[in-house]
Specification:
The chain is mostly helical and 162 residues long. It is built from 6 helices and 3 strands. Strands 1-3-2 form a 3-stranded antiparallel β-sheet. Helix 1 crosses helix 2 and helix 3 crosses helix 4.
Length: 162
């Protein structure tokens, strides 16, 4: 059994905290570099990432919820992406009052080429891990994402500091 309170574990927690911050900063900087390369805003690139990660098209309200933008800002974001040919708006067949935002696969090739390059490099980085380790990494990322969503909601509900 491992010691959950020992000095080695405390050191590992600290190291993990530092590396997590570095990882997140590196991701943000990569996202900015992709946006700069494509002449897009970083939020636009992140929205495209979210849209391509979902199995179904999203509404502007769902985009606002996932990005933390107001619906007005999310609408302007979708307007920019639509003008650039990255997304289309289509009426929802089940609820004609709703509009679905769908990525345009042909136009996304500009973005996915950059992501695919990262993906190949990312896979190489993971090649020396066992399947059990890959499951642990995936579980950690999924739990981190869920925790992040919870913390975002908590922070949005809190009053701003003076």
């Amino acid at each position: 059994m491992t010691d959950a309170t020992g000095p080695d574990r405390a050191r590992l927690y600290e190291e993990l905290a530092v590396e997590s911050r570095r990882y997140l900063a590196a991701y943000v900087l990569f996202n900015q570099a992709v946006a700069d390369h494509l002449g897009l805003h970083p939020t636009d690139v992140q929205c495209l990432s979210l849209l391509t990660a979902e199995p179904e098209p999203l509404t502007v309200r769902q985009i606002a919820d996932r990005t933390g933008l107001t619906t007005g800002s999310a609408t302007r974001l979708v307007d920019r992406l639509e003008r650039g040919g990255y997304v289309t708006r289509t009426p929802d067949r089940q609820d004609r009052r709703r509009v679905l935002v769908t990525p345009v696969p042909e136009r996304l090739t500009r973005v996915t080429a950059l992501w695919d390059d990262l993906g190949r490099t990312w896979q190489t980085l993971l090649d020396d891990h066992s399947e059990d380790e890959l499951r642990a990494i995936t579980r950690h990322l999924r739990r981190s994402r869920d925790l992040g969503h919870t913390q975002v909601q908590r922070l949005r509900a809190m009053p701003r500091p003076d």
